[in-house]
Amino acid sequence: MRTILQSCLKLAALLPLAMGTASAQDFDDVVINITPVAGGVSYIEGRGGNMGLFVGDDGVFLIDDQYAPLTDRIVAAIRLISDEPIRFLVNTHMHPDHTGGNENFGRMGTVVFGHDNVRSQMLAAEYAEEPPLITFSDDVSFHINGEAVRAFKVPNAHTNGDVFIHFQGSNVIHTGDVYRTTTFPYIDVNNGGSYLGTIEALGVLIATSDADTKIVPGHGGVSNVGEVTAFRDMLVIIRDRVAAAIRDGKSLEEIQGAGLTAEYDERWAGSGRIGGSASMLAAVYADLVGD
Ligand SMILES: [Zn+2]
Predict the structure, then answer these.
(1) What CATH number has the domain bearing residue 179?
(2) Considering its fold, how many domains does the chain have in total?
(3) Ligand 1 centroid to residue 256 C-alpha, Å
């Protein structure tokens, strides 16, 4: 218990810097793009995580909200597509590039949902961003615009508050940052993230998808179950290599220097801590040694 509390406190100091709490002028050049996905579902790119957008006669439903200085531009872009009220918003997880607009949307009357741990971790970390107003432990379903939209908790993966949002009629799943098509997974171990849990959560994604499902990642373009399966299989191979190295008595530093991800690095390795090979290997190692 003490360790968990210490982790939360440590995180409070670390994350705002690591994730980049930005001031308004950093956003001047950001352009908001809306890309149709399937049915009434689109995704919105600006800066930060991909947002989900679902429009229809009952109102506008959003997933995540990027950064607070972008809210006006995001709303203006939505208004090109729908004049209906923006009623509900689900946070896929706690990070500021997915929750930064919560306060602004809340003031407009949008009700913000998220997993219990999104709220508790944001409060523990003393984030400037406003946590979700309504939280849930396992899942919550919205019956809106003629279809069921189910947000459900997946195994602890990117953080301990990750949910997928499944548009069951449009056959679209938004994964938050559990799945990103830009880099290796980033495991936020200070917020309960887990590499082994990421493998499990991707298994849930594969099981929930069919060949036609459009998968909207937290960052990057629209994907599909074949790509997710290949990505999951890569993570399994890396896990097994790290496990073998640990059995051989290798230290974390030796593992990070052993080229265990070499054939994947050109496609997947991000340049920094987030999405980089070394931080991912540290997360694998921590899971496997039970640290
Ligand atoms: Zn994230």
Answers:
(1) 3.60.15.10
(2) 1
(3) 23
57 Cα to the center of ligand 1, angstroms: 31
5-36: pLDDT as tens digits: 444 444 443 444 444 455 555 899 999 999 99
Q: Give the H or E element holding residue 111.
A: strand 111-115
Domain-embedded: residue 94: yes
- Measured in Å, residue 213 CA sits from the centre of ligand 1 at 23
Q: Which domain, by its residues, includes 78?
A: 2-21+31-224
CA of 158 to the centre of ligand 1 (A): 7
Alpha carbon of 270 to ligand 1 centroid (Å): 14
Q: Among 2-11, 55-64, 103-112, 270-279, where is mean pLDDT lowest? A: 2-11
Closest CA to 200 of 166, 243, 156, 238: 156
What's the whole-number average pLDDT of the chain? Answer: 92
Long-range interactions of 147-153: CB distance < 8 A, separation 24+: 147/39, 147/40, 149/54, 149/61, 151/90, 151/113, 153/115
Separation of CA 249 and ligand 1 centre (Å):
32
Q: Give percent of the chain above pLDDT 70.
A: 91
CA distance 133 to 172: 25
**Inside any domain, residue 152:** yes
This prediction has a pTM of 0.91
- Band of the pLDDT at 291, cuts 50, 70, 90? low
Q: Quick check: is 262 in a domain?
A: no
Q: Could you tell me the distance, in angstroms and rounded to a whole number, from the CA of residue 284 to the centre of ligand 1?
A: 18
- 209 assigned to some structural domain: yes
